[in-house]
Amino acid sequence: MKNLILFTLIFAFVLTGCRKEIDVQEIVSTPHTPIFINNYTPEVLNVTASVIGEVVNEFGEPIADATVTLGSTVLTTNTFGFFK
Predict the structure, then answer these.
(1) Is 12 a residue whose pLDDT tops 90?
(2) Cβ contact 79:62 at 8 Å
(3) Taking a C-beta distance cutoff of 8 angstroms, is the pair 64, 78 a contact?
C-alpha cells in the first residue's frame, strides 16, 4: 500500500513539475485589418435551379395541399406532403 501511495506521489510530481511556465507577455496578438477594394462590382451569374421538399407538422406527419411559395412560383404539396 505504501508503494502505491509513493508511486502516485512521484507520478503526480513528475506531471506537475514538467510544465513549462508561460509568460503572459510572450503572447502577442496581431490585429487583423480587412482590405477594402474600392469600386468593386462582382460578376452576377444567373443560375437555374430546382427545389424539392416536404411539409410536415410538429409530429412529423405530412401536410397535404399546403401552399409553398418561392418567389413568384406557387406550389401545392401532394398527399404525402411533397412538392417540386
Answers:
(1) no
(2) yes
(3) yes
